[in-house]
Amino acid sequence: MSGPLRLAALPADVARPRYDRDRLRIGIVHFGAGAFARAHLGLATEIAIEAGGDAGLAWGIAGVSLRDPATRDALAPQDGLYTLVERAADAAGAPRSTLRVIGAWREFLVAPEDPGAVLARIAHDDTRIVSLTVTEKGYLADPQRRLRFEHADIAHDLAHPQSPRTAVGFLAHGLALRRAHGLPGVTLMSLDNLPTNGALLRGLVLEFATRIDPPLAAWIDAQCSFAGSIVDRIVPRTTAADRDEIAVRLHQRDAWPVIAEPYFEWALEDRFVAGRPDWARAGVRLVAGASDVAAWERLKLRMVNGSHSSLAYLGVVAGWSTVDAALRQPALRAHLDALLRDEVEPTLDAARTLPDLDLAKYRAGLLERFANPALAHRTAQIAMDGSQKLPQRLLDTVRDRLAAGAPIARLALGIAGWLHFLRGIDEQGRTYPIDDPQAAALAALHASAESLIDGRARAARLLAYAPVFGDLAGSAELLDAVAPALTALREFGVLPTLQRR
Ligand code: CS2
């Protein structure tokens, strides 16, 4: 198969950009040009560019990688083009893919190689939006959502305005350049799975800016806006088999196609000081304020991500390597259905905040999304960074349930699943790494707990880990629910524990 990907060589049935890419100006700088951003923001922006005529050509995207050159090395030779593959299964369970080549990304920058180029892009006259998918750990916020000034990279960025390393450092120093050049403010937009992510990003950037130059912080607060949003699309990591399959379909190799489910959701606070693409054309829910995003955010973080994390830890330990394989376990599927129906949905206040949403239908649709056999979404991928995910995916729901005096048995099994997962060995005796920014501390915590004989004492030791459990660390109700679940997982295994529920 020839490569790199070229539009002229595409089969007629593959959708491709229907605008002049050479006339695209870069209006969006996006940090974290990974598969999710290219399958979600990339699609919505492609649609908006196509629908926008000349005005749409203002919204090309520059992708910034904070760590490694892999995305740039793959896509630069093919002029930033890549294939978006939406995969579903037909009635017989056979995968059905629709392909679309996306042209919106016009530049890929690698921050460690050339931080100046990233700063210059933020400070470019064409730039209107700076957005992020840097994952939960990329914000370097503490459990109280304050900037971790003690972090070595933040300390470095405070002292090195020309060569930041962190997202917050790049944003603050890039905005300082805009201000120094007399340019207007821009909108900063987080697409990460964090509560009130617009307010979070604003707080972190203003903290950093205040530390380096208080008038800069005042300028940012007055001239820039921070748009909160919640996104939803399952985007598994691209595999070699995916690349081979797409090469056959395209009759040429795409160095990095991205795979996604057909489902797409984006609730976005419409606060853009310098304009935005016409994302409504892509079905994006543009809402007036953060309170309007909040209802969709709570739904997504607690229903989708909370059940995702619960199944991921149980799945990894049980040896169910993909989400659809886990959903083929009737006991797990029944557990997730009951978790959502009986313990998560009562905390959403959906009748008031999402009056048009049929929760039972949403729940059924979510389990079908998870059961999609065409995605092969790996449970190990979801299990990453648990210390950064559990607080908003499971623990906030636990807090609301405990405050209401309501049971948390199924939530507790998800928490126990994470604690059990931290052993680093599955039920077939296979070991796996704990991929988490707090891995060292978690390893020490786990070793300390393993030294205890009594199951309740062991669970209490684990739940005392304040960086994750915070004010829940000493909760007797949480311990009462998690301790027996953890003991059951250790003594009987995942499936028998689920079957006993
Ligand atoms: C997943 C999310 O890897 C994970 O943590 O739970 O990436 C999930 O696939 C998306 O949030 C779905 O919208």
The average pLDDT value, as a whole number, equals 97
Basic shape: globular
Helix content: 40-55%
Overall structural class, as computed from helix and strand content, comes to: alpha/beta
The ligands found in this model are: D-mannonic acid
The fraction of residues assigned to DSSP E strands is: 5-15%
How many β-strand runs? 12
Oligomer: single chain
The major β-sheet equals:
6 strands, parallel
Distance between the termini: 52 Å
Give me the Rg, rounded. 23 Å
Low-confidence stretches: none
Question: In what order do the strands lie side by side in the largest sheet?
Answer: 5-2-1-6-7-8
What does this structure look like?
With 501 residues, the protein is an alpha/beta fold. Helices cover 49% and strands 12% of the residues. The chain is built from 23 helices and twelve strands. The mean pLDDT is 97. D-mannonic acid binds next to helix 11 and helix 16.
Structural descriptors:
alpha/beta; binds D-mannonic acid; about 500 residues
Explain briefly what this protein structure is.
The chain has 501 residues and is of the alpha/beta class.
List the helices and strands and how they pair.
Layout lengths: L25 E6 L3 H5 L1 H11 L1 H4 L3 E6 L4 H6 L6 E8 L5 E8 L2 E6 L4 H8 L6 E4 L19 H8 L7 H14 L6 E4 L6 H16 L1 H10 L1 E3 L1 E4 L7 H11 L7 E3 L4 E5 L15 E3 L2 H29 L4 H5 L2 H15 L5 H4 L5 H13 L7 H5 L2 H18 L5 H13 L17 H12 L4 H9 L2 H4 L6 H17 L1 H6 L2
Parallel strand pairs: 1-2, 1-6, 2-5, 3-10, 6-7, 7-8, 11-12
Antiparallel strand pairs: 3-4, 9-11
Helix pairs in contact: 5-7, 7-8, 8-9, 11-13, 11-17, 11-18, 13-15, 17-18, 18-22, 19-20, 20-22
The protein binds D-mannonic acid.
The site of D-mannonic acid (CS2) has 10 residues, from helix 11 and helix 16.
